[in-house]
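Collaborator request log, item 7. Partner lab (contact: R.S.) asked for a structural prediction of RabBD domain-containing protein to inform their binding assays.
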Amino acid sequence: MGRSISSQRSGRTAVQDTVSRRSRRASEPPPFEVNLSPFSEEERRLILSVVKRDLELRCMEKQRLKKIRRGLLLEDSKAPLSLPGAARNCTICSSQFLMLINPRVTCDLCKRDVCKRCSKVYSEDLLCSICSRDVFYKAMVCQWFYSNTSKQSSGCASDAIVKSLFRDNLPGLNDLTDEQMYDTITRYLGPNRRTYVNGEFITPEVMQKIQNEQIRLFHKKYKGIKSSALADLLKVRANAQVGDSKINEVEIEATTARFLQQTREALTQLLKMLCITEEKYNVTLDLPRKQPTGSQVLAIVQRQVEHIVGHTIEVRRHHSLPFK
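Returned to partner:
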């Protein structure tokens, strides 16, 4: 009889567990799935380029939140814990407690003794500045971020698109982080000179802006050199009417030589800056280079010189650059 009652209870428990699991499954939203099979290869690449941008933003946001979290942990480690009412100085700013002027208050969360300047009222609770920022941080990042930072974004549409495309080739796709998934899409899309380094994305557009700024500074410097040389030549011409012609020729040659030397130095500086910028960018890419950095930079400088002189020039590319 006891066995019968026990078996009935265990059976009811099993049925209740089954019903509970089914109800939970029914209440949970179905996984987001995307079928990319009807799309052509070109359409897939366009879709993945959008997904890639979404992953970029997610990676950068995670890096930003991690930086904030590290700052909070560092500040928390510097503020010692003590028994409430035992500290004589603020545990955050170290200012001395003085009655009426700088009274002691106790944080309702961590129980630190702090001054009024280092405290804040939050939802009718008195919190120290560290706990206050920590509360705002948790509200900002939500629980999903620090509960499991490896992968808690399986419900994102971008993840579903990547899984639909790489399901057969990457069985362990669910275990990939956003950074690893970004690298996977990058390899699939092929060389596009865009890379993710130290929480920042380096793009061809950024590199182009840097190079354009370096070229702009060169033209500004060259304009100053040219204006100075023309002013010197005008002075020589003004003195030619009353001075010795041989002296004037020497001054003209000296002015011309100075102009050429300063222009050469400006071009050399431009070559150096362009080479450094291009090389820093290339070393972040795990891609084969179509041509050496020196050839790319010489082509850029050649166009600038042709713009200055007003005609095409020939560059002997087998020569090394004029600096080491």
